[in-house]
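User: Can you predict the 3D structure for this chain?
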Amino acid sequence: MVQAWLLFGLALADASARTVMAAKRGGVLSDTLAWLFTALDILLVSLAIHITGGLASDLWLVYFVVMIFELMFATPQQKRLIVGGLCSAYLCATLPTQWAAASPALSFAAYGRIMASRLFFLVLVGSLSRRISRNALDRDRELSVLREWGLNRCTSGPAPSVANCTLSAPPALASG
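Assistant: Here is the predicted structure, written as structure tokens:
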């Protein structure tokens, strides 16, 4: 029980430190600090999973929160690193519990099936969250181009007004 409270305290300190450091830097952390906090988040969740029963622990679901949060603005290479790190950390958090038991609660075949399905869904949700984020960014860029084009188009000419606007796609979007 003491271990769980210690981990909870460390998680609060981690979240507080991330928030304070980001606030001092205008809401943005350097790449080094961001990766440090990401690794610490994954480590703390993995330790919590390990001390609460390994594969039997429901805390593995917290990986989804960490992953979605971290992948929102990650590059594809960063996505692969984070998802790979999460999967490796989850294996490291659960295997010792499986091996340490004199007679494991699950056969290794059952352990493998459960682990494979959980890892599959972690990877799937990671891919989907990254795609949703990328689509939102692309849509924002397109809207920005449309606004810029519409503003320039409607306010140019001898007598700028809405009547000068025409309904045609801007050149940047018409081709693609």
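The mean pLDDT is 82. The helical segments are 2-24, 31-51, 62-71, 76-100, 108-155, 171-174.
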